[in-house]
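Write out the bound-state structure for NAP.
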Amino acid sequence: MKVAVITGASRGIGLACARTLASNGFTIVGISRNIEPADPFSMTIKGDISDVESQTGIIDQIMCTFGRIDLLVNNAGVAPLKREDVLEAGVESFDRLMNINLRGPHFFTQAVVKTMLNNPSLKEKDDEQKGSVIFITSVSAVASSPERAEYCISKAGLSMSAQVYADRLAGSGVAVYEIRPGVIFTDMTAGVKEKYDQKIANGLIPEGRWGQPEDIARTVAALATGEIPFATGAVIEISGGMNIRHL
Ligand SMILES: NC(=O)c1ccc[n+]([C@@H]2O[C@H](COP(=O)([O-])OP(=O)(O)OC[C@H]3O[C@@H](n4cnc5c(N)ncnc54)[C@H](OP(=O)(O)O)[C@@H]3O)[C@@H](O)[C@H]2O)c1
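---
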């Protein structure tokens, strides 16, 4: 039995990851502020990722029930409550995004990884991947949007958090990856659907469609099941080609 812990699992990308990983045989622990016990979860925990003080308790709860964590998907995240020009946007929104999108997942990863490193199977000398951590960042880690700077900055920071953990853990049996989604159709983007429908029609996304949560979930599953070996620290953009520079 391999246990996957997914933050922000109640809907959108996190829920798609939960379903896809469950169909790949993982036992699923889902964490969100609002989440109900239902398929595909074996355990649901109501928790706020920005509350660093509560994280040890959450991990104890998982370890008491399952005794192990094999995979962490750092997916919980929020957009600014309102888009505001970088010349006007204030400290409150900045702090909210840093706390939820960066500080919370950074320290949650630290605590989860310590339990992974205590897993006795890590000491076995073979080439098999023993544990993994997947950070869901965004193309906004590298693409500027001046009307939601705090989101871009939080994701750029999270991208470096992934690199630092990958560096620290390389060779330990715990692999660390970053997935950068492009424009994915979820609650987060529902409010800007018409704007992005227009942008997609005008060529924003070379593959010519919205991304779906399952596009990200299938990538998570490929990494989590060891289908992409020798790749710790990899940054994988799943954006329908938004990464292509062209003249
Ligand atoms: N949609 C996109 O186009 C897109 C693109 C690039 C990256 N992403 C990233 O992908 C991740 C998932 O986004 P999504 O589009 O699936 O968004 P979503 O549909 O709004 O889902 C966000 C999830 O995160 C949870 N969450 C939010 N704040 C939380 C907190 N403080 N503590 C614990 N859980 C929290 C939400 O549940 P509760 O509200 O109940 O807590 C929900 O389960 C985010 O990190 C987002 O930045 C999304």
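---
The mean pLDDT is 96.
The beta strands are 2-7, 26-32, 43-46, 71-74, 131-136, 174-181, 235-238.
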